[in-house]
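Aim 2, interim progress: modelling of the zinc ion-bound target.
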Amino acid sequence: MKILSIETSCDETAVSIVEAEGGLVEPHFRVLGNALFSQVALHKEYGGVVPMLAKREHEKNLPILLKKVLEEAGVSDSAPGVDMIAVTSGPGLEPALWVGIEFAIALGKQWSVPVIPVNHMEGHITSVLMDISGDTNTKEEVGNENKEEKNKIQFPALAVLISGGHTEIVSVENWGRYNILGQTRDDAEGEAFDKVARLLGLPYPGGPEISRLAAIAREENLPHIATLPRPMLHSQDLDFSFSGLKTAVLYYIRDTFKDQSLTDIDKKDIAREFEDAVVDVLMHKTKQALNEVGAETLIVAGGVIANKKLRESFTALTYEYTGLIVKVPTKDMATDNSLMIACAGYVQVTLHPDLLMHPPEKIIAQGNLKL
Ligand code: KG4
Ligand code: ZN
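Predicted structure of the complex, ligand included:
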């Protein structure tokens, strides 16, 4: 079946057309058209995402991206032959979500196709079904024989979702059956990277900047001066608190440097210690969850997985847990995109085929939608 998918939950506007088949046992996806516009440069000057600015940009960009993917897929805009439209209905910024939903509903009416609402977090989890390596802006066939083994996901699985908006550990009993085992009690992990970067005078988004400085500190073998706590490391549960870590950085800078400004060496040292603290806590909780669930597959998603140290740490788990399948998506698939929304839409209609005949009459944006 052909799926048009739309994502506007935060600061990425994305539209794609995907051909999906094979059900949940052997899913095959072919990207017919895919377009994404990141607003990060616009929000940069405000030091974070501004919801009303995001809404305006989505409104401006959706028709442009739609035109692009229809052309790329070689289909007409009046009858593109899609079987359903999948659109993110939450969680996310409500003004931004509404833009995508209203756009999807209008297209659904125009083309007489069902519109299926999708949970953005289910999108992140199911993104591993579409194991694309390389640039998602190019057409690629996925799920061919060579990749079949690589694409296999065994249940129970565990999903670790880490981005600027979320930090969640989710047990995945099977597709469509999710249970949140732990989450952050305050800031999301990416948010902590961004806030600490600001304390160090680094630009938004701060994650890549911090990991760059941390890598230099390791390469140059700079002395370890800064020490930071590992919040909730031994809390027994699977929750996180990153706001305390950010405050610890604030106090460390205030108490150590008083009125002096930080040198580049100080910044590199703090960046490395902060990254080490985050990685220590995340890996500790992931292992605890893997043991609790007895997981056969570990799925990691969200923009923070672009972090090299985290990628290496997650990948290295296969040595510690024999037989564990670790799915760490490429950066393009891990950050917000619309291909993952097509995946989640496909999972939903495969689990509930009735949805295609009887789609929800009303779709509403739900900023706090739970899995
Ligand atoms: O998933 P994403 O693109 O957007 C959402 O938040 O939904 O994630 C963006 C977050 C930002 O907080 C950014 O600082 C963080 O991911 N990030 C990183 C790295 N690259 C991006 N954090 C740590 N290390 C990185 N290399
Ligand atoms: Zn996301």
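Residues 134-148 have pLDDT under 50 and may be disordered. The pocket of KG4 (ligand 1) is lined by residues 10, 163-165, 190-191, 193-194, 205-208, 211, 302-304, 306-307, 335-336 (CB under 6 Å).
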